Amino acid sequence: MEGPSLAIAEEQLQPFCGKKILSVAGNTSLEKEKFVGEEIKNIFSWGKHLIFQFESYGLRVHFLMFGSYAATVEGMSVTGDYKKTQVPRLSLVFENGHIDIYSCSIKIIEESDIHSTYDFSRNIMSTKWNSDTALEKILVTPNEQICDVLLDQEIFAGVGNIIKNEVLWLIKIHPQTLVSSLSKDALKLAIDETKKYSMNFYTWKKEYTLKAHFQIYRKKVCARCETEIIRAKTGERERWTYYCPNCQKI
DNA sequence: TATAATGTTTGAAC
DNA sequence: AGTTCAAACATTAT
């Protein structure tokens, strides 16, 4: 799950802020019983993290590849209607509804104000996003491939493999291009398009049109020139990369 | 139905 | 002691 989806989760779950946990369930190995009685002080996302802040500590949820969640408020789904057959990793029950989270990683953070520990200027979905500091960080590692750079959560918290692939196609840059062989303007463009695409991802996902907007990710031919798309694991991270050998030359 | 993949942490091995 | 890397985890659309 990528940053924009977490931003949507943050929005959808706001009805539970200020609510008390009445009961818990789920197959998490955490001692979840101690969450009962806690009041949710804040729910927010940062990068690919979703935070539930309680009085003196909080939960940090990471959905990894296959994680998902569902919630109802006053009996109505607030997360869209997809069926859930699995056992929740954690289920939180409130007087106004409940939240179920599935196949995710959950960590307890012993902080009363986790929000203040995050740097939102490197969260791609934040209004505090700062493209200048991103550029500075990128310039420090000239030997990195651009496909790795875009996935670097220290620089682009929230950017995932879909955003990476779509952005590189949009700006016609080969995924294995080294930072050192890109001009400052090209890098700035990459940064700005990543921010822009992430916001589009958010909008499209809310409209349920995200997949319809894919131009290269999991596609067979290039939407621009109809050249056969190459699918390969690239970079140190060896994540699947889709690119057009005609539009994106190294 | 078998396969591929919106990702990160962990701990063993070097 | 620091770095590297495979394993683990987990799900479902295609």
How does this structure look, described?
This protein has 250 residues and is α+β, with helices and mostly antiparallel strands. Helices cover 22% and strands 21% of the residues. The chain has five helices and eleven strands; from the N terminus they run H-E-E-E-E-E-E-E-E-E-H-H-H-H-E-E. It has a five-stranded antiparallel β-sheet, with no helix packed on it. Strand 5 (68-73) and strand 6 (76-77) form a beta hairpin. Helix 1 runs parallel beside helix 5, helix 2 packs across helix 5 and helix 4 (161-170) packs across helix 5. The protein is elongated and about 55 Å long. The two termini are 29 Å apart. It binds a DNA duplex (14 and 14 nucleotides) through helix 4.
The biggest sheet amounts to: 5 strands, antiparallel
**Spatial ordering of strands, largest sheet:** 1-7-8-5-6
How many strand segments? 11
Radius of gyration: 20 Å
Shape: elongated
Give the N-terminus to C-terminus distance in angstroms. Answer: 29 Å
Class from helix and strand fractions = alpha+beta
